[in-house]
Amino acid sequence: VQLQASGGGFVQAGASLRLSCAASGGTFSSLIMGWFRQAPGKEREFVGFISRTGGSTFHTDSVKGRFAISRDNAKNTAYLQMNSLKPEDTAVYYCAAGVRTVSTQDRDYDYWGRGTLVTVSS
Questions:
Q1: 63-80, pLDDT tens digit by residue?
Q2: In degrees rounded to 5, what are phi and psi of residue 107?
Q3: Could you tell me where the beta strands, DSSP code E, fall in 13-104?
């Protein structure tokens, strides 16, 4: 499975961005999709996940109410809608896919895409 994240950019605080993660080489609907991020000088952290059907999502507390994960299995693509962006959201964002179970732990994801940089200025 190959994952390609896109949609990052430079925005002002309060703006919105939508990241996309296109998957290929596997059965997308069998994959649990997760988003992680890594800010400069910090460890990678969990952002959220979405179940195979999209019926279940979970987001870390720092983004709840602002970010939303979704997926379109017909397009083999997962999304991360980010609203009300803050400077502390600045990070490289990674999408990941897992075959076992939903998880907040990066070790439970089997496939990773290259990240896309999101920079939020104050």
A1: 999 999 999 999 999 999
A2: -70, -15
A3: 17-24, 32-38, 45-50, 57-59, 67-72, 77-82, 91-98
